[in-house]
Amino acid sequence: MQEHIMETVALKDLASLIHMSSSHFSAMFKNKTGHSPLEYFNHLKIQRACQYLEFTDMPVKELCYTLGLEDPFYFSRLFSKYMGESPLHYRKRKRFL
């Protein structure tokens, strides 16, 4: 997943890499990590977004596309869900620490 962080990855594609059905792979993944594959992948994307927000001046819209997400509004909602604040608020707060 780390190697494909900038892409959209389908569950069936991940499962086929290790020759499992999507449902079996998903259940096994959740058992091992405590998260569904999609949750885990989104968490990785948000971690990378935090790095971009803190260390670059890349606009949020461009950052969204760089991470393989097509909707900046969805990205903002996803970021807020995981981080408890908007991407812009996160950037401002980190820059003033």
Architecture blueprint of SSEs:
Layout (H helix, E strand, L loop, with lengths): L10 H7 L4 H12 L3 H19 L4 H7 L5 H12 L3 H9 L2
Helix pairs in contact: 1-2, 3-5, 3-6
Whole-Å distance between the termini? 31 Å
Alpha-beta classification: mainly alpha
Radius of gyration: 15 Å
Provide the β-strand percentage band: under 5%
Please give the largest β-sheet. Answer: none
Q: What's the name of the CATH homologous superfamily?
A: Homeodomain-like
Q: What number is the mean pLDDT?
A: 92
Count every helix, treating DSSP H or I runs of 4 or more residues as helices.
6
Low-confidence parts lasting 5 or more residues at pLDDT below 50? none
Specify the overall morphology.
elongated
Number of strands: 0
What's the CATH class, please?
Mainly Alpha
Helix-strand topology string: HHHHHH
CATH architecture: Orthogonal Bundle
CATH topology: Arc Repressor Mutant, subunit A
- Portion of residues in helices? 55-70%
Number of domains: 1
Describe the overall structure:
The protein has one domain (2-95): Homeodomain-like (Arc Repressor Mutant, subunit A), CATH 1.10.10. Helix 1 packs across helix 2 and helix 3 packs across helix 6 (87-95). The longest helix has 19 residues, at 37-55. The mean pLDDT is 92. It contains 6 helices and no strands. The termini are far apart. It has 97 residues and is mainly α.
Key structural traits:
0% strand; 97 residues; single chain
Task: Give a brief outline of the structure.
The protein is mostly helical and 97 residues long. It has six helices and no strands.
